[in-house]
Design brief:
single chain; 248 residues; alpha/beta; two-stranded antiparallel sheet; 9 strands; 27% helix; globular
Length: 248
């Protein structure tokens, strides 16, 4: 993804906040804790957004793990701030109502980017309205296509105002289980990605969630360079400068 080249221009800005709507984040992970601000747990309705699954921690590490600290991994946006918003439970399940509350909370906390590695098959006008609310407030929203290897649409990834991401493998080919279709905006690396894990460890993860995390980090780098960019402009830059591996 040319991250090393990007870091010659910026490694991020702590004023740029990335909300991680997921299972929470391992709050005491040594490669993350200095980046995290107070979030919220909409599963248990409290202020403790601790990760009890591990999925959210994997996403957070890719987005913005501390870098050049002689430990662990490099995050895409080194110096950006992470906002943990727990909207999925220990089994990786969540209601649309939790997701909508998480999006609104992220807007209220002045998030610049919201990454949502989650999806449901049913259309929801209420969820769409909340996504549109965030978009209208200048927030870049990133989500996944899902991991079923078909062209089924999952929400919020199916909404127009969301950058929807599929996954590629180490050969820049579509990962077999990555969903595809006309609602997809870009693809990014999602196979065997080394990232942060619960209990202060590291492990490799595979999925469109890990791909979306790369794109969320990229969006944050762009906003670190040019905070005046609108969500539409961020999307356009990401799409127009991506390598075309598909063609007409």
């Amino acid at each position: 993804i040319d991250a090393v080249e990007a870091w010659e221009f910026t490694t991020g800005d702590k004023e740029v906040v990335i909300a991680i709507l997921d299972t929470g984040i391992e709050l005491q992970h040594s490669d993350l804790k200095s980046k995290i601000v107070a979030g919220f747990d909409f599963v248990n309705s409290d202020a403790d957004a601790q990760d009890d699954n591990g999925h959210g921690t994997s996403v957070a590490g890719i987005v913005g793990a501390v870098t050049d600290n002689h430990e662990g991994i490099a995050g895409v946006c080194w110096d950006c701030t992470l906002l943990p918003v727990k909207v999925l439970d220990a089994t990786n399940f969540g209601f649309y109502s939790w997701w909508a509350k998480g999006i609104r909370f992220s807007v209220e906390q002045h998030a610049d980017v919201i990454t949502m590695s989650l999806g449901g098959s049913a259309f929801s006008q209420s969820l769409k309205n909340t996504v549109d609310f965030a978009y209208d407030n200048g927030v870049v929203l990133v989500s996944i296509t899902h991991n079923f290897g078909n062209d089924a649409v999952y929400y919020p990834g199916g909404f127009d105002n969301v950058i929807t991401v599929g996954a590629t493998d180490m050969n820049d080919k579509r990962w077999t289980n990555s969903n595809f279709g006309s609602h997809l905006d870009v693809v990014a690396p999602g196979v065997g990605i080394l990232t942060t894990k619960k209990a202060g460890a590291y492990s490799r993860w595979t999925g469109t969630s890990q791909a979306a995390a790369h794109v969320a980090g990229l969006a944050a780098l762009l906003l670190s360079l040019k905070p005046e960019l609108t969500p539409a402009q961020v999307r356009e830059i990401i799409e127009q400068t991506a390598e075309d591996g598909v063609g007409l």
